[in-house]
Each structure stands twice: as structure tokens, then as C-alpha cells.
Amino acid sequence: MGPESLAGRMLLRHWRYLPDSPDVDAGTLDQHPPLRKGLCPGIYKCKTFPMKDPFFFGYGSLVNRKTHDYEQAHPAQITGWRRAWRRSPLRDLCYLTAVPDADCTLDGLIAAVPDSDWQALDIRERAYLRQDATRQVRHEVNHDPEVAIYAIAPDAHHPPTPENPILLSYLDVVVQGYLTEFGEEGVARFFDTTDGWHAPILNDRAKPVYPRAQSLSRTETALVDSYLSRYTET
Hints:
alpha/beta, Hypothetical upf0131 protein ytfp, eight-stranded mixed sheet, two-stranded parallel ribbon, 10 strands, globular
């Protein structure tokens, strides 16, 4: 095994914490194209990827290809994790994280990180820890790449309260991604494999707070609202 592969394995097994910070400035976005907002490479047809590149597994906004520019992407599944809406001391809002659950399987998107350059993704996911999930992911890539997942540290997140709402603009992005990759059945699985729907919803569609907000069609918006009404009923 060459030193690049060894370095990649060591990197993916190292939990890295990046503190919360304001949104990345334009100069940083120019230096790191995968962070650019609104770029959508389309569905990647070929399943042959550079064998040296590690992958990430996305289970929230990263499933929506319009929010990043990682072109070598493909739908996948991970076992041993469940999604949850959680608050943390770093944020006033609720965001998705992954929590261990041996009996749960999540749909998601894997994508290659060219040349093991995690800097752009670490900036985007700065409130999360990056850890190895290689043996938990099922995919159709033609080799066995290293795969990382981002999750908030177990002792750094808590159940949502009335003071920690979910941004509707963020949820819209996530659901749009699942609808594109997995159809409405995938949307149903997303809601069913996510905890914390008792959190309040902040409707910011008219003036989105989420920096990677996307435009939804009327059909997509209606789908989000329909599922949300089912899962937030008291």
C-alpha cells in the first residue's frame, strides 16, 4: 500500500473539529470551488473513480448536488446511523446530525474528495466531526474507497427546544435533494429515519436565512409541507 493511501486512511480515522464561524467569504469560495453556491454538475453517470480519492457520505444538505460542486457523486446507503435534529452550543438553530443506531439504514450521497483535500468540506461542516465510516457504507463504486461521515460530537448536541427552530429553507434543500436522488419514496424514508420533529419550524422561505437555499417548484414545496404536517402533528 502506497504512502498516499496510508495517509488517507490515517486522515479519515482522525476526528477533526472545526469551530463555528461566520459564513465563508467570497475569496474563500473562489479558492475552493466545491463550496460555491448553486453549482449542479448533474447526475454522475460513470461509476469509475480515481482509486486514491476518499469519499464523504452526505445525509442532509450534501445530498442536494446544487449545494456543492463535487462531481464524482453517487447515491449510497449507510447502516448504523440515524438522523436527528439537534441544537448545539455553537448554533441557535437546529440542524441535522447523525447519531449511532445499529438498526437504522440511511439513504445518502457519496462523493469523491479530489486529492484528499478536505479543507473546503471541513469549512462547510465546521460544527461537525469527521470520522471514518468506510465499513458501514454500501455503494456501486468500482472499488472500496475510504468514506467519511460528518456528525456533531456526542457530548456537544442536545434535543431541540422551542428556542431552537429548524430553518424551513434548510429543510427544503434537504428534501429537494432526496426527491432528486431517491424519488418520493426516498423523501418518505428521510422523514421516517429522522428524529426531533417536535422542534419548531421557522418559515424563512420569503427571505432565506440558510446560505445555500434553493428555489423549489410548487410541487416540491407542496411535498415538503405535506410531509412536515404529518410529522409535526401534536
